[in-house]
Amino acid sequence: MKYRTILLFGAPGSGKGTQGKILGNIPGFWHCACGDVFRSLDPQSPLGEAFLKYSSRGELVPDDLTVSLWAEQLAKVEASGRVSAESDILVLDGIPRNLPQAKILAEKLDIRHVYHLSCPDRVKLVARLKRRALKDNRLDDANEQVITQRLLTYEEETKPVLDFFGEKMTTHVDALQSPYQVLRDILKTLDF
Question: What is 4-181's CATH topology?
């Protein structure tokens, strides 16, 4: 059975993690942030070293590593009994990050909706990322050159995923609103 899934989608700093954490606290929803899974890796492990190598340059981790790590994390949580495809809705953020990943996930999951947290003001995104770097000790958000590269990578590789899912499956949400207003806009259209 495939997981019913919603995707939180947007540029780095658009609030995907914030909204994912909130939704993940609702019974029947399970939030998986791919970036958190990568950051939890032992930096001395081969996968941890690979993640640091790519993230420190603002680049995407290769698809095979990303998808296998995500699938491994889901399998662990499923085996523990904390999540079930029969009863839970999967909330993903940080994956898919490009078209090949979107195609792989579309085969494995029942993707019901994409919430695009839109923030065209790049100056505000950079400011959010820098605040997050200090608050959460996120080294990948501290360097302005890395931030610029991450935003460029998002525009070139990640944003085209929206076309893959199409307008019928996508709700665009103004990410510059307060977290409460963003959540309200998501919940208005969330229908399972």
Answer: Rossmann fold (3.40.50)
